[in-house]
Write a structure and sequence with these properties.
The structure holds two protein chains of two kinds. Helix content of chain A is about 50%, strand content about 15%. Chain A is α/β, with parallel strands linked by helices. In chain A, the strands form three sheets. In chain A, strands 1, 2, 3, 4, 11, 12 and 13 form a seven-stranded mixed sheet that branches. In chain A, strands 8-9-5-10 form a four-stranded mixed sheet, with helices on both faces. The chains are: A alpha/beta, B mainly alpha.
């Protein structure tokens, strides 16, 4: 870092004793000096594989920022979702890490609670209009439950919806508008489309994964919300999976597999394989996110799914048709020695233009409302506009620091619903399901007890 | 042979006639070998002893998500972590531990027995001359060359009910079953982790047993044949006793390896919480999941130390029981 030069203006202001102006001028000079000298600051940035070639795409995305800040260079490191958590927690614990980083929305409260992230100052918050441009559900994920501090900006969003095959629905005589209007209608629709033979292939009604998948909780949560339940109590101190509403939703969700509308062999697979199979024409409906569009675009020209799919919100339950809303945020690392420059880059990437550009490369939805409604995104394919509309009913998990351990508890136990639903070993029954949920709640409460 | 006489023996027999003792020269210690060993010893201390001592201290700290930034300065709570993980049924790390303990014991015994039996059997077959022997031995070693995490991933696909090659072979090709069973859901999960482990483990045992077999003197077999011993008698009375030291050591290594087995389960079932279900969970995946993923590092360290103590006790008992078998005098 170069020393800021002494200027006549600064000297005059100092003589007048105008300390506020002196500090402002000094700060401006400091930033100018650090940003102005060629190669003066190198920022280290950790990102997840947001695109298939993030090592190339992220530098492309920040190239305009670097042109307008010639004194800054950025070294981008792409982590992966499996090892990224360990690397980030180790960095947070040791205070040695990057200058700025991407964090999954459920990771952010944990890392913030560890003291690993720099909170936004009042001035920084004012620069982003207190987050008014972002989806409020995602803005909450930049905070810690029950606290006011904000630790970053939402970067991109993961919103879930029902991807369905229009040709299968048409052949079975099912009206999609009706099919997703209620749980009963959805159930009836699945029964009609199950076993339809389209393009020489027998189509199973619905696909969702079992225990060997990271989406177990994300898949189930919208059903619980739509049934009027929640994953946590209002004060976030207890698991709420054993509420009557949640139990009813879990029962409905499981019954789809028990009845054979979700084939048993789907329950031994993970989301990635199932999405590939849906694109290949094996299933009528799958709940997924915007990244599935990338797979559809990459499908061979003759693939049956091309031109024969659409999206719909989650089937409406007694309490609505909410969907899971997650994604990633950007934050300045507490241990950074270049916080001002790192914040400038975070702010830039949180802007509308970069968010639209990223969404076009990654197929992930922008986290800003204006970017998600930008024609560059919504007119790319009608599905993107629908995803933007569906996002209005998005729910994010409460931003508690203990979400990480809690999600592992939930995934471990709720993944066992697949064992019950598959009919192998113990048969599915409501008492058996309730016993499984009771064990889940007991273990989850113990994990939460430590956090409170 | 001549009798040994002379002043030397007389001197030994009669201390009174002992010649005046010369001043004893202190035996000079050669430091050079110790110098050569020092770097290795230092590395052992750094790589093994320091982490063990640090891990033991961690097991007495309240080290979790909220105290991780303090690391070794986290609150000291004595043996509370040990009590929690061993005795408190509501402790999240304890949850499912008995099932994992049962599975680990069965898994270790079964994998060890099958791997040793298979390795020994194939080694006996290879311990004779036939065309292509070297090629066969190389090809048989291939499973061992595959890293365990690749084994877990590959078998995870092979066990799939409809698309997996195992059901295709069992049902469609060999017609051994009427329907395709699930291997990755339910009780079959246990077999789904045992079989790949055996598949990978036996070739190296085969190689070790083959090397040991080649050191058994051929004269013993020739003498036995002359005495009219049949193949079983030769195996039971010559081969097995000759291999006993190797078998005893290899069984011990196998049991240690299998108790600490992690990769295959993690790769086969690690995309969610890493929980394979009631019949597939082993101690190390449980420890990883319910310590690291739950952020209960102090309790995880406590479980690790309990496991280490149990394994040390096992090794001590094993070594004592088979000490004589491990020596050539056996």
């Amino acid at each position: 870092m170069t020393r800021p030069p002494t200027s006549p203006t600064l000297a005059r202001a100092s003589r007048r004793g105008d300390s506020g102006r002196v500090r402002a001028a000094a700060a401006a000079l400091l930033l100018a000096a650090t940003c102005g000298g060629a190669g003066a600051v190198e920022l280290s940035m950790w990102v997840m594989p947001v695109t298939t070639n993030a090592q190339h795409d992220v530098p492309d995305l920040i190239a305009p920022f670097l042109r307008s800040h010639p004194g800054i260079t950025v070294r981008v490191t792409v982590l992966d979702w499996e090892s990224g958590w360990n690397k980030i927690t180790a960095a947070a614990a040791s205070r040695r890490g990057p200058d700025l980083l991407e964090l999954g929305t459920t990771w952010m409260p944990a890392i913030a609670a560890m003291g690993g992230l720099e909170p936004l100052s009042a001035a920084q918050l004012a620069q982003v209009d207190n987050g008014a441009a972002y989806y409020p559900q995602l803005w909450k994920t930049t905070q810690v439950f029950g606290q006011k501090a904000v630790y970053g900006l939402p970067w991109y969003a993961d919103v879930r919806a029902a991807f369905y095959r229009t040709d299968v629905f048409r052949q079975a005589g099912v009206d999609p508008a009706q099919a997703f209007s209620s749980w009963d209608a959805f159930h009836a629709a699945l029964r009609k489309i199950n076993g339809q033979v389209v393009a020489g292939k027998r189509v199973a009604a619905l696909a969702y994964a079992g225990k060997n998948d990271w989406n177990v909780v994300h898949n189930l949560a919208p059903w619980i919300w739509n049934g009027g339940g929640d994953v946590l109590s209002a004060d976030a101190k207890h698991s709420a999976l054993n509420s009557p509403q949640a139990l009813k939703a879990i029962d409905f969700y499981s019954s789809l597999a028990v009845e054979g509308l979700v084939p048993s062999n789907a329950l031994e697979k993970d989301s990635d394989i199932l999405e590939g199979a849906w694109v290949g024409g094996d299933y009528g409906v799958i709940f997924s996110g915007p990244w599935l569009m990338r797979r559809i675009f990459e499908a061979p020209p003759g693939a049956v799914v091309r031109g024969n799919f659409d999206v719909a919100p989650y089937p409406a339950g007694p309490a609505g048709h909410a969907t899971f809303f997650g994604g990633s945020n950007l934050a300045v690392f507490k241990g950074s020695r270049h916080k001002a420059e790192a914040w400038e880059l975070v702010k830039y990437l949180g802007g509308k233009g970069p968010q639209v550009r990223l969404s076009l490369v990654s197929s992930m939805m922008p986290a800003r409302i204006d970017a998600a409604n930008d024609p560059a995104w919504t007119s790319r394919h009608p599905v993107y506009a629908r995803l933007t509309a569906i996002a209005a009913d998005g729910h994010a998990y409460p931003p508690i620091p203990a979400w990480g351990p809690l999600e592992t508890v939930y995934t471990k136990h709720l993944g066992q619903l697949a064992e019950l639903s598959s009919g192998i070993g113990d048969k599915y029954s409501v008492p058996a399901m309730k016993a499984l949920i009771a064990g889940t709640v007991s273990e989850a409460d113990k994990v939460l007890e430590e956090a409170n | 042979m001549t009798a040994v006489t002379g002043p030397g023996l007389d001197a030994l027999a009669s201390p009174a006639r002992e010649t005046p003792a010369r001043p004893r020269r202190r035996r000079k210690v050669d430091a050079f070998p110790y110098l050569l060993l020092a770097p290795a010893a230092l590395m052992m201390v750094i790589v093994n002893l320091v982490p063990i001592v640090q891990g033991f201290r961690m097991s007495m700290l309240k080290l979790n998500q909220y105290t991780l930034s303090q690391f070794m300065d986290a609150p000291f709570i004595g043996l509370r972590n040990y009590r929690g993980v061993l005795l408190d049924p509501t402790n999240p790390v304890h949850s499912g531990m008995l099932g994992a303990l049962r599975n680990t014991a069965l898994y270790s015994i079964l994998v060890t027995a099958c791997s040793v039996a298979l390795g020994l059997g194939v080694a006996l077959l290879l311990n004779r001359d036939f065309p292509g022997k070297a090629t066969a031995r190389t090809l048989l070693m291939l499973p061992w060359v595959v890293p365990t995490y690749v084994v877990g991933t590959l078998w995870g696909f092979m066990w799939q009910r409809d698309e997996g090659i195992i059901n295709h072979v069992l049902v469609d090709v060999l017609h051994l079953m009427d329907h395709k069973p699930f291997w990755l859901i339910g009780g079959n999960t246990f077999l789904a982790i045992v079989i790949p482990t055996v598949w990978r483990a036996w070739p190296v045992l085969m190689l070790i047993f083959l090397a040991a077999l080649q050191s058994v003197p051929e004269e013993l077999y020739e003498a036995a044949r002359l005495d009219g011993a049949n193949a079983w008698q030769r195996f039971r009375n010559i081969t097995l006793p000759s291999l006993k030291p190797v078998i005893v050591i290899q069984v011990m290594f196998q049991i240690i390896d299998n108790v600490y087995s992690y990769n295959i389960v993690a790769m086969m079932f690690g995309k969610g919480a890493g929980y394979p279900g009631e019949w597939g969970d082993l101690l190390m995946p449980l420890l990883t999941r319910q310590s690291f993923s739950y952020w209960r590092f102090g309790e995880g360290a406590a479980v690790s130390f309990v496991m280490m103590a149990v394994m040390l006790a096992f090794v001590a008992v094993w070594m004592k029981t088979f000490r004589r078998s491990m020596t050539s005098e056996a």
